[in-house]
Amino acid sequence: MGYSGxxxxxxxxxxxxxxxxxVASNNSGKLAEIRDMLSDLPLEWIRASDVTGGPWLVVExxxxxxENALLKARxxxxxxxxxxxxxxxxxxVDALSGLPGVRSARFAHLNANDDENNAALLEALQGVSDxxxxxxxxxxxxxxxxxxxxxxxxxxxxxxxxxxxxxGQGGFGYDPLFCVNCFNNRSMAELTSDxxxxxxxxxxxxxxxxxxxxxxxxNMTGQLDSVGGP
Length: 230
Hints:
Helices cover 36% and strands 20% of the residues. By secondary structure, it is of the alpha/beta class.
């Protein structure tokens, strides 16, 4: 559908929040990044734990990022009755045959924190040369509504390599070890928030999701004709 970007921006700028979206994650870093990159949309962003009254838990037993993102989004939507957005993302290291992959948050052990996972990754790559430390971040975003819409999926990835030591104070997860190809091998944790959103896997996925989410909002609120649909 051909909607004018300028007309949509004007409409959204004058709108109060049109819907609440629960983010199916306990990761405050992910929530902040998603909320910041989509802050211009007329949406109220809510953490799943704020609705459920405690840490939101779901068994992430899918074999792919897509499966896990949909699993989390559907679970959060069912539990809250709200539109749910879920992120499943992780690090794939070529020298480790794609690991940690979907187990990125649990690489060191089931309840590992960022420091433990980074230490486990450095240990696993001992003796691996710079040339063989290639890696990429992948992200899949899924949106599920309680109104039987077809789920939305968006994907992104960022190429880089794994450094030899932690660098930078920003970001979270493996960011201090992930050196970004297009930023002269600065670590993701050394980038500003604007730089990171330009090149990150999550930034790319959000850019793919934006028009899909915008159209979903307009359809749900019955505003297609007033915004200028055909």
